[in-house]
Amino acid sequence: MGVCEMTDNDRMNAYIWAARVAPGAVPLLALDKGDEFVWPRIPGQTKVYRGRGWYSIKGERMAARASTKTAIIKL
Length: 75
Description:
By secondary structure, the protein is α+β, with helices and mostly antiparallel strands. It has one domain. It has 1 helix and 6 strands, in the order αββββββ. It has one helix at 8-21; strands at 26-27, 36-39, 42-51, 54-57, 63-65, 71-74. The radius of gyration is 12 Å and the shape is globular.
């Protein structure tokens, strides 16, 4: 198994952890390219998922990296 691969148990634990962070939250790994989201505890600034853990603020080109287990609220 490679470094970036997650087992089914790891994925299930990521979803459980995200649900504990905020109601309706899912892990970043649940998104597809182009999906929009906000951080659960910092609402207001919409971000766009770029794939492979990369995201950017909506309307901007500069991207940042987040863990695939990061909790987000999908829009």
